[in-house]
TrEMBL record:
Keywords from the UniProt entry: Iron, Iron-sulfur, Metal-binding, S-adenosyl-L-methionine
Ranges where the Radical SAM core domain occurs: 5-237
Organism from which the protein derives: Streptomyces beijiangensis
Coiled-coil annotated spans: none
Region feature Disordered, mapped onto this chain: 774-798
Claim: S-adenosyl-L-methionine is one of the keywords in the record: yes
Domain of life: Bacteria
Protein name per its UniProtKB record: FxsB family radical SAM/SPASM domain protein
InterPro entries the record matches: AKG_HExxH, Aldolase_TIM, rSAM, rSAM_sf, rSAM_SPASM_FxsB, Sulphatase_maturase_rSAM
Amino acid sequence: MDRPAPSLSQFVLKVHSRCDLACDHCYVYEHADQSWHGRPKALPEQVMARTADRIAEHAAAHRLSAVHVVLHGGEPLLAGPDRLRGAADELRRALRGVCALDLRIHTNGVLLSERFCDLFLEYGIKVGVSLDGDRASNDRHRRYADGRSSHPQVLRAVELLNRPVYRPLFAGLLCTIDVQNDPAAVYDALVALDPPRLDFLLPHATWDNPPPRPGASATPYADWLDVVYRRWDDGGRAVPVRIFDSVLRTLRGESSLTESLGLAPADLVVIETDGTYEQADSLKTAYDGAPATGMDVFTHSLDEVMAHPGMLARHQGVEQLSEECRSCPVVNSCGGGLYAHRYRTGTGFDNPSVFCPDLMELIVTVRDREAVAGPAVPLADLDLLAEGFGDAETVGRLVAAQLDTDRDLLAAVRDRAPIGDELADRAWELLVDLDRNAPEAFDAAISHPYTRPWGLRALKEHSPGEVSQGLAELAAAAAMRARRGDTVQVPLRDGTLRLPGLGSVTLAGHQGLAEITAGAEEFTVRAGQRTLRAGWDEGVDGLNPYWNPVRLVQMPGWTVALEDTDPLRDSHQWPVSGRLTEGEAKIWAEDLTEAWSLISSELPRYAPGVAAGLRSITPLYAPDGSDVSAASREAFGAIGAARPATPALLALLIVHEFQHVKLGAVLDRLDLYDTGDRRTFYAPWRPDPRPLPGLLQGTYAHIAVTDFWRTRRRTAEGRDFTAAEAHFARWRRQTADAVEVLAGSGALTPLGERFVAKMGDTVHQWLQEPVTAAAQARAERSSQEHRQSWNRANSGTE
């Protein structure tokens, strides 16, 4: 598949080129590039309009879902409220109907006032503030030209942003590191201001002008950050810190949150007050003219800017790094550091970062400290799960960890709601109240398996409408569970009121909002001129044709939902079926009851975990009538399946797919393998080569498959016994072989090696159990035929 053409989604717009402070570490005024002298002080209206059109043109051409614009300077507040309003109006005008706009401003804070904040509240402009810590630390660099301190004014700005009415505007604090400042004092002073996020930046430097390194340490910046990291960690990580979160994310193989770490391509361009395009501002540190592209908004498109060699170089990932960086063991996390920090006269940017020793030390220290601190899953739980099983308490702890993740995700989604979105604000206020006063109802609502797919999609697509709609749906579902009489307004989805985990209300012909009130005995839905009242037990099968509740199958020791109502349940690789008829639902319930009886009696080591962690089964549609099933990494607590021919096969599908659910939850908490390993391997249950994560998932699931056939042969007779014996003989050998491939891959972490070794212990015990000669021969023949077929289809793959 062709890669999409490189595009830009982040724009730094210089609305004013001068500043009211004289910070001696500023890259705009105090470093090599001095181009600010010849530029207009404020962004002219015609430049603003043309810039907005260029951004919209680019967003439309590349079908971007959102663009991120930062109003910057100099000091952007010097532009004044009217000019900032004009900039926001132009961007809104140009992007209307094209994509979402995430608009922010970064300021030193000294001019921030209620007038500015009211403007920012009106336009949803989030505010980041520069502050280098306590007064002594801040005053080391961030002063007025006459030497006066700026600290009191910045504290007033932060106090203003912390007022309840303006708090949604507050994006966080940015601190430039000076190793002569006390790191603990800096961190404590910043955290005391209750910021939503902290950002620590290394001071700008190059090999020509290296950073100060006072004292005997070769890594003073890593040492400084280590003090902060330990204080942050010991304090429960109460506030997100971008540099630490980025290191942790890249160590897990995820993307960085900052351009100074990781290998993600740069997608940012700067527009100066004269309309010229520039690369990242930090390049002003390298040499005079370093960020220049020679292009401007009047003559050149953003696609032409993307073709600039300097921009293209930063889209080449590890290949654009120096040879020393490419061979570095932490390159996936470091990414060579900030591009500007690599500059040296004579070799340009083909060097490691001037902070290379510090970045190496920081990443390794964080990695080692995380390992020493112990795994996020207790070792006793890890061992029990690795053996293939997991009791109710062990799986219950996975459930609790997933709930914590869902809470974090919900907060992240809330942060994407547009400022002033009354629907989202009311829904969030109700969710907060229910979390405090009806926590069981709140937890049950957000732990619905399809909450996470919704949340991840909302974050990825930057869709304000999806954010507010999903929050309202979750608030309604939580309110219905609490039954306190709360009223919630919820947007409809094509005439359907979605109530996650509870069901749906069909309001054909209606669009817009529905209002739902959840009382003790019934709930009421109002849409337009129509009012629907339903008791909690109505509608299960025809009592109320508009209310489609999720059907619950209640069995001894386990209650599971048949989820055929949620419009967002399509998270599996197979299409979902429609709403089950009364007869279909009855057959499902009967088969589930018999399958659960089989699991409880013949597979008792799986049953407690299934009961504790599997809350939902989503009926799937198999066009050819085959037995299909699936588990989604994003939908913990759910599996999908087309109803198989027999309850016994349904039992097999349940234990098989729940293995994927358990392992996915473990992988959310632990690194078991090198996420950068791109090799593929033979898997005896697939016709295609599998990457290491797929092989691990498949091997773990086939422990349950092997065990199923191992136990079935004890009760089967005749041909059924012969088939079960052959399945057991084949799958125990093939699963053991797959375990050996995993163990010898060289890509497992120490915890991954421990996990795979425990998997091997389970399977190797089964290799000692006797089987008939005929079954063994049949298993060997089947295995050989599969491998030969695989080799023919995948010649040269391994």
